[in-house]
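[Discussion] Sanity-checking designs against the backbone

I'm trying to build intuition for which residues belong where. Below is a structure token string of 421 positions. I'd appreciate it if someone posts a full sequence so I can compare it with mine line by line.
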């Protein structure tokens, strides 16, 4: 494992997200699971470490510990469909403390399209675990992510930022309800029963939807969800028929190409008003569908949570959430500062133990064999206590830390290891 960098200014994040980039742009940079893995593999082969790849409906962002950001941008451009021109226009780069704070904000839901969105922390954890699978995380990044997850847990327990049902899935259902008035008597088609699809289904049922049909590539998954709520299940072989009967169609799949296009609406009846919601990035409903008379099509950027009470509670919790982030981030920075003395502490410990072992070997023949273990223990305890006092002194004197380190290293003629294997 590499030696701790101990430099917050080396932290960097690059990416595309919903604040500056529209859905058509974001879908160019959206990454499949295979593309995420390809980025990590490519980075590993080039000798880069400490990289997290996050790709959701609203953002594609790469986090790393590095003095440069150009290699991250190149990785993203190489393994996505986005162009350099698009990134230069819509992308962003954050460094140092700003980059680290961005990760906290994203994970707790402060940077989400829907304030306090519950889904994002799961996606950050997935990105973290994937990087761990490739053995790309060293102590500094690992510790930062643990701090971030602890912050999220505190925010959920100590504030109302997660109050109520406010998420993209919930916003979609509210949007549909506001445009169709009553969902109970409407024919509803939900295509996709993954994470967002499941939550959307639950929200539809809770708002009175009963004539709901599910379609999913994995038919068994659709069957399982349908059994839970006593719903209908269909297949893609009957897609045109289901589309022709639906008043509300919600698509939430991970398909890389549109699931619905104008050809699916050949049977569309004039005057049949219907709402289509695309909860996918890349988009799974072709934009040209919106030109068909009687169809209202909305994508991720057109959805907004219309539950004022929920949002008021969440907005009121933002200052408290910020305070928790500050507390946890300050603790992380304190730990980071303490890591600067680790090489000196290791070298000092090695030096003292070498002296102890040399003296022990020199004089142990003067003692009975049966007492050597106790003597070994006593001498080690003496060294450990001396080291403990030295560590406390080095950590407590932050302002003069470098001067004290130099003095200790010079006094004991220490040789610090540049890297731990």
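Best answer:
Here's mine. Compare freely.
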């Amino acid at each position: 494992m590499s030696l701790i960098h101990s430099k917050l200014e080396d932290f960097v994040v690059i990416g595309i997200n919903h604040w500056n980039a529209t859905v058509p742009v974001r879908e160019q940079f959206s990454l499949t699971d295979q593309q995420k893995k390809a980025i990590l593999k490519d980075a590993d082969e080039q000798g880069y470490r400490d990289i997290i790849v996050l790709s959701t409906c609203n953002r594609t962002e790469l986090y790393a510990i590095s003095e440069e950001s150009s290699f991250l941008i190149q990785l993203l451009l190489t393994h996505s469909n986005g162009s350099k021109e698009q990134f230069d226009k819509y992308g962003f780069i954050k460094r140092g403390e700003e980059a680290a704070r961005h990760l906290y904000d994203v994970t707790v839901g402060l940077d989400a399209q829907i304030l306090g969105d519950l889904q994002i922390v799961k996606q950050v954890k997935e990105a973290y675990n994937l990087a761990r699978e490739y053995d790309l995380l060293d102590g500094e990044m690992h510790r930062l992510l643990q701090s971030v997850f602890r912050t999220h847990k505190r925010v959920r327990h100590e504030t109302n930022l997660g109050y109520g049902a406010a998420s993209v899935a919930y916003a979609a259902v509210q949007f549909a309800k506001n445009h169709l008035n009553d969902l109970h008597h409407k024919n509803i088609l939900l295509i996709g029963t993954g994470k967002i699809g499941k939550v959307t289904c639950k929200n539809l049922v809770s708002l009175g939807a009963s004539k709901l049909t599910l379609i999913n590539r994995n038919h068994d998954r659709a069957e399982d969800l349908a059994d839970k709520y006593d719903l209908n299940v269909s297949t893609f072989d009957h897609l045109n028929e289901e589309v022709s009967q639906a008043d509300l169609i919600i698509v939430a799949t991970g398909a890389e190409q549109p699931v619905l296009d104008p050809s699916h609406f050949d049977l569309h009846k004039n005057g049949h008003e219907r709402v289509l919601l695309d909860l996918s990035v890349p988009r799974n409903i072709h934009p040209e569908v919106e030109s068909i008379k009687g169809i209202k099509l909305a994508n991720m950027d057109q959805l907004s949570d219309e539950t004022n009470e929920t949002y008021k509670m969440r907005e009121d919790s933002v200052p408290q959430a910020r305070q928790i982030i500050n507390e946890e981030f300050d603790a992380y920075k304190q730990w980071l500062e303490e890591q600067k003395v680790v090489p000196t502490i290791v070298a000092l410990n090695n030096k003292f133990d070498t002296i102890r072992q040399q003296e022990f070997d020199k004089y142990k023949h003067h003692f009975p064999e049966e007492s050597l273990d106790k003597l070994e223990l006593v001498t080690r305890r003496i060294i450990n206590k001396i080291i403990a006092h030295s560590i406390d002194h080095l950590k407590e004197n932050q302002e003069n830390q470098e001067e004290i380190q130099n003095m200790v290293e010079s006094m004991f003629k220490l040789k610090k290891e540049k890297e731990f294997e």
